[in-house]
User: Fold this.
Amino acid sequence: MTEIGVRSHSIIADLKKAEGADAIISEAITELGRADILVNNAGIIARNEAIDVTPNDWDAVMNVNLRTLFFLSQAFARHLIDEKIRGKIINIASMLSFQGGIRVPSYTASKSGVGGLTKALANEWAEHNINVNAIAPGYFKTNNTAALQEDAKRNAEILSRIPSGRWGQPSDLGGAVVFLASDASDYVQGITLPVDGGWLAR
Assistant:
């Protein structure tokens, strides 16, 4: 991104293991000088009847979606507190932070946890000028929803409930992320902001 005047640095890490969180934050700071915005965007999903979920399936989803999210946030917050700088943490929750869903018990549990953890961290870290908030995407065109998009019956059911009448595009999340990362949200703490085309309003 240097051609547009922005430095970037890529870090390859296994987010199934939270033990690497400190190293990820340290490398980002070493390479770029400081870190003041963290977007916890990694997430996986396992679709299965609740009766058939295995411990390995459950742990894989919870590890990426909730455990690593917490320890990345913790390592990031330590940096901000130690350096006495303002920062923003933006977690990616889900509309299943508000609803139960079907055939995704581990995902629902993890994303409900993200909503609760967002509040808990905001309560503790607001005094350090750290804003902790979350975004809850609705049905978006991603790899995680490919099977639903390709299922004609389920696709039609989903679209019939979305007032906006379409699946979300990744670009639809940009405004919410920019708002929560900017000074405009300095007095916003602990919220989970739905970006769902009106799904929850229906």
About this structure: The chain is about 40% helix and 10% strand.
